[in-house]
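User: I'm curious whether this sequence folds into something compact or stays loose and floppy. Could you predict its structure so I can see for myself?
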Amino acid sequence: MQISAIARERRHTLLFLDEIRPFSPVHLDTEVDMSGVLAHREEHRDERRLSVVTYVLHAAARVLAAHPEANAAIRGRLRPRVARYGEVAGKVTLDKRIGGRRVVVSAVLPDLQRAELPDIQYQLERYRDGDPVSMPEFAPMLLLQRLPGPIARAAYRRAVRSLARHPRFFGTFAVTSLGHRAVDGFHSVGGTTLTFGIGRITDRAVVRDGGVTGAPVMRLNLTFDHRVIDGAEAADVLTEVKDLLEGYSAEKEKETA
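Assistant: Here's the prediction. I'll summarize afterward.
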């Protein structure tokens, strides 16, 4: 048996998990027929290869812009306060190596309510391909790893607990994906009122026009903070994101008309 201290490279994760303890999670899920998304991506492959995460960010941002009650954050226990934001910012998680250790880091993409698919993809690729050690956006995280534990904890709390700065650190919604592996679905808490979890796309039996056929289907999971919204609002958001994702083929027809 080998016992060791938690690696400094994972300190930001532990601080984050400690900060979100008051979260009151409720989980929903649905299945999305991704035929339209895959067709749309194939048509535009020569311009830029669009990831599934890009489509989910694009669809979710447009839905949240129409649901200001869900595009919000909460702070406080005895006298809780809720901030509702005009900007829709999406947080994504990334699998990186820092100091030779595999860690999860996050990046926030601002103003997604106005961003188009290629713009979102460009931002994702920048974070995906960049080295967190040299990117200025990750400098605060690296500083937390170098500071003594108690000082790092105090600095983290002071930085993230302002509702005004919440979108900068956490976004107003989060998307996390494990679809690159044999994971059909999972639920996660991204520090936001809404967190979407993306599983893999796999062929499943679906009913169309009264008959059974195969289609590429993705499990889309949603974890929401019950302190901020109720299940009916969350169900509306999840359904509308599903409808937008399944409607990209219709958008493709408009673009090529």
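Summary: Residues 51 and 121 are 7 Å apart (CA to CA). The first helix runs from residue 11 to 19.
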